[in-house]
Amino acid sequence: MANREDGKETRKRILDAACEIFADKGYHAAKVAEICRRAGANVASVNYYFGDKATLYLEVWKESFKRCVVSHVPDSQAQSPEEQLRAYIHSLIRDFADKGDRGQFTRLYLTELAHPTGLIHDLWHDLIQPRRLVLLDIIRKIAGQNVPEEAILFCEMSVISQCRTLLTVRRNDLEYLLGQPLSTDLIGRLADHITRFSLAGIRAIGEQAVRKDTAC
Mean pLDDT across the stretch 157-175? Predict the structure, then answer.
């Protein structure tokens, strides 16, 4: 019984360490040896409990998603599409900056978007697609029904790319570009800017589609 309990604890330590390191570095840059050092386990433990690095990555996605219990749009029926977009963007930015479970899953999500591994196709559909469909629906409501689906997808990419700035630009470099420390207040103002910028772009796409439709 003791060996079984020790095994469960070792597996948990490896999974916890892997959640942190994969979220911070992404799949490709994360090293099994580093994960095991942080977990206080030997490298062979990963193969024993998970099979290989790729399987460990899948388990990290499942575990991080399970821990992340915050919805990006808490009450879509009570908000305008513009307010829904603001809530979505602020939640995404806030979650990224969060050092706890919410931030961990969001960093995994954004890292996978930036550097796809090809490992989580099925999990992506089950875990991410519902979250993605929320944003696509918000964009459609703002842009209007005349906007082609391709343009909606381009808008989604634009919104996500802006939010990903906190991931793709090193903190020191971002603080240098902005000329001030990356405080919670600054992150909030950045989220406000991304919201305003995105709304203007989505509305412009919608107006362009209406003009084309009218011209025809």
Answer: 84
